[in-house]
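Hello,

Our lab assistant flagged a job as stuck in the queue for most of the afternoon. It eventually completed. Since we weren't sure the result was trustworthy after the delay, we are filing this so someone can double-check. Below is the sequence as submitted and the structure that was eventually returned. Let us know if re-running is recommended.
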Amino acid sequence: MQVANGGNLYVFATDTRHWYLWQNATWVDAGVVSPNGLVIYGGQPGVLTTSEGTWSFGSPQRPGGVDWPTQLNGSANGYANRTQITNGNLYVFAKDTGHWYLWQNDAWVDVGTTAPVQNVVAPVAIALSPASVTIADNAPAGTVIATATVTMSDGSQFTGTMTTSDTNLFAISGHNIVTSRAFTSADDGAHSTVITASQGGQSISMGLSV
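-- returned structure --
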């Protein structure tokens, strides 16, 4: 049983595996997937449901930390302190790291320290192809190093901005990460930068190595 979304009361029936909303003095079937706004906490009873199954917290608490085992259909897959449904996605907050993580493609994606906000269209994942690359030490300015693909919370096209933490060697051109200047032999060796995609007041970042 949970109260969310402006004081609405929801219950989960284990026999039907459905959520129900109390509305106009009767229970309304809200379906098998948890509505947006529902939250469960480590160390407390409760479940959330997605198309993949039932999410819960296990025990014991993480040694030396404050997080609890996250479980999908009873199988542990990480540690967190809070699990919630926002914009139709499942997020967890790990107090041990101070980061939010999004469950996507059967894996946790680090989406940073900013909490997801309901009804705000924002980046939820960024992928760089390739994530690590070798380029010639005489590559001219504007050489494409990698291409970024940004996933938005509602599946729409990314229309925000991308930045790079190292503007000496790297620049942004559309969705491509390019060389900001011509490389020389003096640039031999490993270099890295952090690519950040921002939209809707929220950002997500990923490292790139050259």
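-- support follow-up --
The delay was a queue issue, not a problem with the job. The result is valid. DSSP finds no helices and 20 strands in the chain. Residues 2-119 form one domain.
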